Amino acid sequence: MDKLRIGVLASGRGSNFEAILRNIQSGYLNAIIVAVISNKKNAGALEIARENDIPAYFVSAKQYPDSHQFDAQILRLLKQHDANFVVLAGYLKMLGKNVIRNFKNRILNIHPALLPSFGGKGMYGHFVHEAVISYGCKVSGVTVHLVDEEYDTGPPVVQKCVSVLDDDTPQSLAARVLEVEHQAFSEALKFFAENRVEIHNRRVRIKPN
């Protein structure tokens, strides 16, 4: 693959996007972020993008008569900026099938648990951490995975574990998991940037460096 030209989709404050950006700026990750798109007008991710002179777009499904036109606009913006890779950095909306098919095996999402556990529709943010603690898990973590046409079912690229402490709350667990998310996302992207990812039968293998 050519140098990663990443289009970022985000709905929130953008901490994962910012961590990736800092790893690019430090030289750890050989990539460029070409555009940031959010379905939330006041998303922190858009502010971070503007502060760093990255094209930033607010694109809401409410602006379009149907999902097909909304998806077409997302795809148009990604292609306008010659993106060859997509990162979902806290994007709280199902990505359209047309976008997924145009970027097959080139879309990464991050989930704040060890998939396939605690994934699926409605399992995001504090809902995940509440479920992990309620179930009595001793270990949680993060999964960076390829995106397919279902929620959280794409093959994992990187998984990292985080201990669940006896006195954890969803908030305290979330804070520790987020720290690991910031490491894991860039690690997974680095594998792609270095052409070390092989995908066969929905399984990911990382080639030695």
List keywords for this structure.
single chain, 209 residues, alpha/beta, Rossmann fold, 7-stranded mixed beta sheet, two-stranded antiparallel ribbon, 6 helices, 24% strand
The radius of gyration is 16 Å
Within CATH, the superfamily carries the name Formyl transferase, N-terminal domain
| SS-derived structural category | alpha/beta
Adjacency order of strands in the biggest sheet: 3-2-1-4-5-6-7
Number of domains: 1
Helix content: 25-40%
Number of helices: 6
> Strand count, sense and closure of the main sheet?
7 strands, mixed
User: What general outline do the C-alpha atoms trace?
Assistant: globular
Average pLDDT reading: 95
- Give the CA-CA distance, first to last residue: 16 Å
Indicate the CATH architecture. 3-Layer(aba) Sandwich
Name the poorly predicted regions.
none
The CATH topology name reads: Rossmann fold
